[in-house]
Write a structure and sequence with these properties.
The protein is α/β, with parallel strands linked by helices and 465 residues long. Helix content is 28%, strand content 22%.
């Protein structure tokens, strides 16, 4: 596998916002320009009566919403061509793999009733989720019917159906799967599907979606062969011990993906009244905390309107609150190029300070070296921190001010062990390695100006304020 694809930097193209497949290409091009190497696309298959992207009715038909008007080609053919274009751009496409439910009007209910979970009166059962913090809060999706992957009397036929689905979409051109509500699927089934995928493409990757899962449910995924899971660092306040403890425990299962927001969460810009400083802080931290990271479409522009699996449409494009594409590009490229930012890493708090988090990061990719992550926890003031007694600095260590667009690509020499951080700033202390390839790679990337290209203007109607 391309070694840089093992550092998943994922752009989530939400198809209900992006529109039809031809319009996806401009967003994919923007993702490439920002240094992303994976493109995650929410479900594009034919939906049931609710219209929810996650209520799949037909697993081998494309949702007409994403086909251009008057399309003469079969939807699956057009999808295959689009995936090929993504891969030609340098993006590996990822799709949702939903094996724990279908829509309630899915033909499989009639054709294979034993595949479904039934209640005491033979009624279909809808999946539900309990709030981890408040178990009394229960969400039921009544447009869905839950699959009985564990107890079906035709488990062999059911699992064969899912395995063939995996093989089909790998052959079509997808390279990976976001495994929806992975913790609600038997571990043995995941092993079966990972093996099925490897029989078609040994490099195929499976990403476990664990939003809402308890720690025990996530730990139960150990040994499934799933390659990554999504972690909870988005909610860390940089103080409470739970995040580092969870990182250490779950890191023994598989490396993880951080995200400052996702299509399932509220927009960060909405929660912070469009505060660009926080937008940068949370992205930078996600990049350095985990093996991989992900953002949904619009994060780079500070979009505030949430992404809805039923109601979002291309008319919901927003006027950008800000434009942090150049910042995202710099962070992505540094993560790809610097060994100390690869892999899941191990952490320890290097200094206790009420205003600054100082984390030491070590990684299996560079076991004899360490880097330090500096986070100003305050949002409205600059803070000075001294690294005396914290970092065994050498003349080769540099200060990378990744939240500043104008900071040197190769970092700044550390003249002393005192650093003044901007409000909410994330900075890195890493050992600099002179490498012309790194510098050339960076300088060959596009420079983003204040104006959007005409191509982008034609898409979601983006315009600067």
């Amino acid at each position: 596998m391309n070694s840089q694809k093992q550092i998943p930097i994922i752009y989530n193209l939400f198809p209900r916002l992006a529109g039809t497949m031809p319009a996806w290409l401009q967003h994919a091009a923007r993702a490439v320009d920002m240094g992303f190497n994976w493109l995650y696309i929410n479900p594009v298959l034919y939906t049931g009566y609710s219209g929810s992207l996650y209520a799949i009715k037909h697993h081998y038909l494309v949702n007409p919403l994403f086909l251009p008007r008057g399309a003469k080609k079969d939807g699956m053919v057009l999808l295959e061509q689009t995936l090929r274009q993504f891969r030609d751009m340098g993006l590996w496409p990822m799709m949702d793999l939903i094996v724990n439910h279908t829509s309630r009007d899915c033909p499989l209910i009639r054709e294979h009733p034993s595949w479904y979970l039934h209640g005491d009166h033979a009624e279909l059962v809808s999946p539900f989720a309990q709030d981890v913090d408040d178990p009394k809060k229960i969400t039921v999706w009544d447009d869905l019917a839950e699959i009985d992957n564990s107890g079906s009397t035709d488990r062999e036929g059911l699992w064969a159906y899912w395995a063939e689905l995996v093989k089909h979409y790998l052959r079509l051109g997808f390279k990976g799967f976001r495994c929806d509500t992975a913790y609600k699927v038997p571990a043995e089934l995941w092993r079966h599907l990972v093996e099925a995928g490897a029989s078609v493409d040994p490099e195929a990757m499976f990403f476990a979606e664990t939003l809402g899962a308890t720690e025990e449910q996530t730990l139960a995924l150990n040994g499934t062969g799933l390659h990554y899971f999504f972690n909870s660092s988005k909610w860390w306040d940089f103080e409470q011990p739970w995040c580092l403890a969870q990182h250490e425990k779950l890191g023994k299962i598989a490396p993880s993906i951080s995200f400052p927001e996702s299509h399932d969460t509220r927009r960060l810009a909405a929660d912070t009244d469009g505060n660009e400083v926080i937008q940068r802080q949370r992205y930078a931290f996600a990049a350095v905390f985990s093996a991989g990271l992900m953002i949904p479409i619009g994060y780079e522009f500070g979009f505030k309107q949430g992404l809805d699996v039923v109601f979002t449409n291309p008319n919901h494009g927003e006027t950008p609150t800000f434009d942090i594409r150049q910042f995202i590009q710099r962070v992505n490229l540094l993560k790809l190029e610097h060994p100390l930012l690869h892999g899941e890493g191990t952490f320890q708090v290097a200094k206790k300070d009420p205003d600054v988090l100082v984390l030491e990061r070590r990684t299996a990719q560079a076991p004899d070296k360490a880097g330090w992550i500096l986070v100003n926890k305050t949002l409205d003031k600059s803070v000075t921190v001294t690294l005396d007694g914290v970092a065994a600095l050498s003349p080769n260590h540099r200060l990378y001010r990744i939240c500043r667009d104008n900071s040197p690509w190769a970092g700044e020499p550390l003249l002393d062990k005192t650093v003044t951080l901007d409000p909410a700033e994330v900075a890195l202390v890493l050992e600099w390695q002179e490498d012309k390839r790194d510098t050339e790679y960076h300088h060959n990337q596009p420079s983003f100006g204040k104006d959007f290209s005409s191509q982008m203007r034609e898409g979601l109607g983006f315009s600067l304020p």
